[in-house]
Amino acid sequence: MPLVRVDALRADSKRLDALGRAVHDALVETLGIPPDDHFQILTGHDGHRSTLRHGDYLGVRRDDGIVYVVIVIVMRAGRTADRKRALYRRIAELAEEYAGTEPRNVFVTVVENQSADWSLGHGEAQYAPG
Asked: 3-state DSSP call for residue 5?
């Protein structure tokens, strides 16, 4: 069960929806996440009241099309580095296809935790019953 957060600069609801779909479709395709396992926080920043900062770290020249497809993806640990690379690549491809976001502006990070770190409702640890 990944929890996805997408932050994008100057993104309207249509672009945010497209980015959310791109991330979800990539998760389903590359990691086998069930299609109905869909938990996302989509936030647009207007550049005035809220904004995103970026640099050209590691030689990647970013601009105001930056998307932190902060994607923080928070998910249970266990995927291989190859599967994560496939996920990052597919998110970038679909973000460009669905939302017109250049791949150089797609910034992804994965945070992993354990089964007992999730409660999906009712105050229960559904992945780690006890």
From this structure: strand
CA-CA distance, 128 to 59, in Å (whole number)?
42
Rounded distance, CA 28 to CA 126, Å? 21
Enumerate the active-site residues.
Answer: 2
Contact 22, 94 (CB under 8 A): yes
Query: What is the distance between the terminal CA atoms of the chain, rounded to a whole angstrom?
Result: 19
Condensed to tens digits (0 to 9), the pLDDT of residues 89-110 reads: 999 999 999 999 989 889 899 9
User: Residue 28 has which token pair?
Assistant: 């389903």
Give CA–CA dist 76/3, Å, rounded.
10
Question: Are the C-beta atoms of residues 110 and 84 closer than 8 Å to each other?
Answer: yes
Residue 75: both structure tokens together: 């998910």
